[in-house]
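Box S1 | Example of a co-folding query
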Amino acid sequence: MSQSNPNIVVVGSSNTDMVVKTPRIPVKGETILGREFIMVPGGKGANQAVAASRLGAQVTFIARVGNDIFGDSSLSNFIANRINTRYIQRDPETPSGVALIFVDEHGENVIVVAPGSNAKLSPDDVQQAEAIIRTAAVILLQLEIPIATVEYTVSLAQSYNVPVILNPAPATTLSPNLLHEITYLTPNETEASILSGIKVNDTSTAETAGKKLIELGVETVIVTLGAAGALVVTAETTKLIPAPKVTAVDTTAAGDAFNGGLAVALATGKSLLEAVQFANYVGALSVTKMGAQPSMPTYDDVMRFMANSNT
Ligand code: ADP
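Box S1 (continued) | Returned holo structure for adenosine-5'-diphosphate
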């Protein structure tokens, strides 16, 4: 990339997704024969770490995997993606996180996630990485790890004036204390609805929800709106940044791509609106390809796409 590679710390989940294609979703008590089986690395933390690393950042991932074959393969995947694995703990007792996913012919799915060692990622694990957090350009978190660990990380980052991006996924409510310490909050429409108590289904309701979250103490709210792009809400202004038009093939992990892109753009010193525009391009590119991590673009992919686009 054009600027020196910034340091980004991602604190979050790592899963192995096990996907079985099936003619239909079985009913309770039923056994049916499925079709192909694929096993792919996933977890919002891991997806966002890979997204940021592909875009050229120096990424340290703080996570916890089991001492099992899934943990082995997750670590190999992080190393292949040039992620610093020094602060990834191996839990001696708890298995790695897995997601069991069934997808039918219409693309409908049912998913059960067993968080495993992700649920054991502790404030202590994060504290061990204090030296690298202190000097990071940006810290990026999601909500697939214990909330106490999220709260500890955010306070630690705050104490060193390191900006924090919290992608509040999966959707839940958050304490006022935590909201007060967030620099950038990046909910999608569902998450914005749950966090603000205001049903979000268009730009105008996204603005109302965003303003409410600003009143609750968040510095900047960026509501992602799928193909419509993202709405940036601060105390002073609201601005819709449209996403470029693409043919969507698989929208899995669009939010993860967006957040990885946002972290890299902010860390390289882009302005807020430029950073959201960059993140939109990363999110849009990711939906043009199948899969979560395989669809994450490189910095050159994004530059080429931006140069060929009119948005
Ligand atoms: P999530 O995946 O968390 O539900 P969104 O669906 O809002 O989040 O998508 C996140 C971002 O990915 C959007 O803000 C946009 O930048 C990009 N994106 C998602 N879907 C599309 C699409 N169909 N066309 C273009 N960009 C998209």
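The mean pLDDT is 95. The CA atoms of residues 222 and 232 lie 5 Å apart.
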